[in-house]
Amino acid sequence: MTGWPYARRRAALESLFAGRRLQVPLTLCPSTTAPATARGWLEWTAAGLEGLCFMRLDEPYVRGARSWRKYKVRATADAIVGAVTGSLAAPRTVLPGRYDAACRLQYTGRSS
Q: CA 104 → CA 85, 98, 99, 109, distances in Å?
């Protein structure tokens, strides 16, 4: 199936969900080609929606490559966990960091 275009793979997945009546905890993310519908989804940012992913309908899956694009509705930044307080099994606080231009890990804040 990986050689199939996305539209065909998506249709097969939707058929699987419908045919087997799959339900929670399995969830099929919504999909649309209608710009008005996608704009409506962007109103869900208060509920934690980070953004929308876009894929070309005619592209096959390419292992190790990201052919999709993401439209983020809020500014985000990637960070790494530099340290934790408490134990690793039950951390109390996560201390994230980002590397600066000199490749030094710089503390950027903490979770609570």
A: 21, 8, 5, 16
The one-letter amino acid code at 78 reads D
> CA 100 to CA 47: how far, in whole Å?
32
Q: Extract the tokens encoding 59.
A: 């592209």
> Within 10 A of 36 (CB to CB), how many other CB atoms are there?
7
pTM: 0.60
pLDDT of residue 71: 87
Verify cis geometry, omega within 30 degrees of 0, for the bond prior to 25. Answer: yes
What's the pLDDT at 22? 85
